[in-house]
Structure to design on (539 residues):
């Protein structure tokens, strides 16, 4: 067909706008993906190393609980700002300045002499790293040829899950071989490499003479609303949820601010986000699926360390040796997921992922006992690895097929919000559910332990004989009772974790139903249409 007879631009397939890039900016792509990696890794390292950090600044359990909250609350606060400022000044300048600021903050933070100073640096670090994830997806979609979007999305998903599951090993290695300060200092070379790649690998953004004015009210209400809700969820389990006035105040004030934000956005002439994009089908349902997925991933990332630490007494480095079996296989499954995304329906890829995650949860729930170690988790971890790669890649790519490039910033911020909020809701649910089920199991076990019962007396005598100190046989009775209490706590904790794995498996099955119920995505650029089903007019 001659060029003159080619279809008009308006009839071109959606998602392949004129002037789409034809080459891959490798250094720029590496930079933004490193930003995603750094953001997730830093948050998880702070969580695993929280006990060491609390001890260094002489903080108790309650006040020290705000150390991780301060960082992620700041990421939620800055997410709406990232939408606006990324569209006004471009990704390159903002990410470059954020990376350098994050490097400086990471140098200074572990030198904090007290808790208030550390919380301030945690908050500032969260503000800087909060730009990384929202601008990553928009950079991939705007600067990568459409035929490579599937690979970019798959690598993005790999980054999130790899950093999530290697953090325990890194934290344990830092503490055992160096010091807790390296939890922060390891960010410095990573952030500097990211800044160098941005400087040399991404061209300067052209000046925009028609920059939109900042919607101060929208930025403030959206950021503060999300941050307050997140803080309420993060502190809810510690403060006993709705029995705490602090939790009530955080959740209600955050909800009111978000309600005011949406009313303002619907009435203003120049809204901060495009509500038609944010609420147009199928994006809300896809964001729910992303939140569901983060719930299942973060919950299992909590449950296995909880079991190995509480029941088996493993150190962080030993816990990491188990979680690494989720991280490492994704280096193989990530390219496979991208290949399937280009040649099959992304819903199929996502469904395969949800099925594998659900089976992994049920496999642990069926066989878990107090005797399990790292090796027994290996089959479920391999299933979890495949499931995470496929599910997150499939959902994100399915959402991308519905987007226009100009909506990439809105989509990136929506994914960041769903990722953080879904993960926090999942963690809050799992921590609370596991605690309640463990307390119930402990109560039920206690009802069957009677001081005069023959089996109880025999077990106490056995424990006393084993634990009695030489020359002090009377110490055996007290130690035997202590050992029995430890056995009961371990059994109760194990039963609570089993029940929680069942609940997570059921929620994953619900996410699978939602994914199956989706209509097919619109046909995108011919470069990633299924090769065996490409219409003749698009070939």
């Amino acid at each position: 067909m001659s060029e003159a007879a080619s279809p008009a631009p308006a009839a071109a397939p959606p998602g392949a706008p004129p002037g789409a890039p034809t080459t891959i900016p490798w250094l720029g792509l590496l930079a933004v993906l490193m930003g995603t990696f750094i953001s997730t890794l830093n948050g998880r390292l702070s969580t695993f190393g929280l006990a060491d950090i609390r001890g260094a600044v002489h903080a108790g359990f309650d006040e020290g609980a705000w150390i991780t909250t301060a960082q992620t609350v700041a990421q939620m606060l800055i997410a709406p700002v990232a939408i606006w400022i990324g569209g006004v000044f471009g990704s390159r300048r903002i990410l470059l300045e954020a990376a350098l600021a994050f490097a400086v903050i990471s140098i200074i933070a572990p030198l904090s002499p007290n808790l208030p100073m550390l919380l301030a640096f945690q908050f500032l670090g969260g503000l800087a790293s909060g730009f990384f994830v929202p601008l990553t997806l928009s950079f991939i979609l705007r600067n990568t040829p459409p035929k490579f979007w599937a690979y970019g999305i798959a690598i993005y998903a790999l980054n999130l899950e790899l950093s999530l599951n290697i953090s325990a090993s890194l934290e344990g290695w830092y503490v055992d071989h160096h010091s807790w300060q390296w939890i922060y200092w390891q960010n410095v070379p990573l952030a500097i490499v990211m800044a160098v790649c941005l400087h040399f690998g991404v061209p300067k953004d052209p000046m925009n003479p028609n920059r939109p004015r900042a919607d101060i009210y929208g930025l403030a209400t959206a950021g503060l609303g999300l941050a307050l809700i997140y803080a309420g969820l993060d502190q809810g389990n510690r403060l006993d949820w709705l029995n705490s006035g602090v939790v009530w105040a955080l959740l209600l004030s955050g909800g009111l601010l978000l309600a005011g934000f949406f009313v303002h956005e619907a009435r203003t002439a120049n809204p901060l986000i495009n509500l038609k994009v944010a609420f147009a089908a199928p994006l809300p349902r896809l964001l729910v699926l992303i939140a569901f997925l983060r719930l299942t991933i973060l919950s299992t990332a909590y449950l296995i360390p909880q079991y190995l630490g509480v029941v088996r007494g493993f150190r962080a480095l030993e816990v990491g040796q188990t979680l690494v079996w989720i991280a490492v296989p994704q280096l193989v499954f990530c390219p496979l997921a991208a290949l399937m995304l280009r040649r099959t329906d992304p819903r199929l890829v996502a469904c395969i992922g949800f099925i594998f995650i659900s089976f992994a949860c049920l496999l642990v729930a069926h066989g878990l006992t107090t005797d399990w170690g790292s090796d027994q988790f290996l089959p479920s971890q391999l299933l979890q690895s495949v499931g995470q790669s496929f599910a997150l890649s499939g959902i994100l790519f399915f959402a991308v097929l519905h987007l226009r490039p100009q909506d990439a910033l809105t989509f990136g911020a929506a994914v960041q919000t769903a990722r953080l909020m879904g993960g926090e809701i999942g963690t809050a649910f799992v921590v609370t559910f596991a605690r309640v089920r463990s307390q119930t199991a402990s109560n039920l076990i206690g009802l069957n332990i009677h001081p005069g019962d023959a089996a109880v007396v025999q077990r106490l005598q056995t424990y006393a004989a084993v634990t009695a100190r030489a020359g002090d046989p009377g110490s055996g009775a007290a130690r035997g009772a202590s050992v029995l209490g430890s056995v009961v706590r371990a059994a109760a904790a194990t039963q609570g974790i089993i029940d929680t794995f069942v609940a997570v498996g059921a929620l994953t099955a619900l996410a699978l139903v939602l994914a199956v119920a989706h209509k097919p995505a619109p046909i995108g650029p011919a470069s990633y249409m299924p090769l065996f089903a490409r219409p003749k007019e698009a070939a």
User: Anything to note?
Assistant: The chain is about 75% helix and 0% strand.
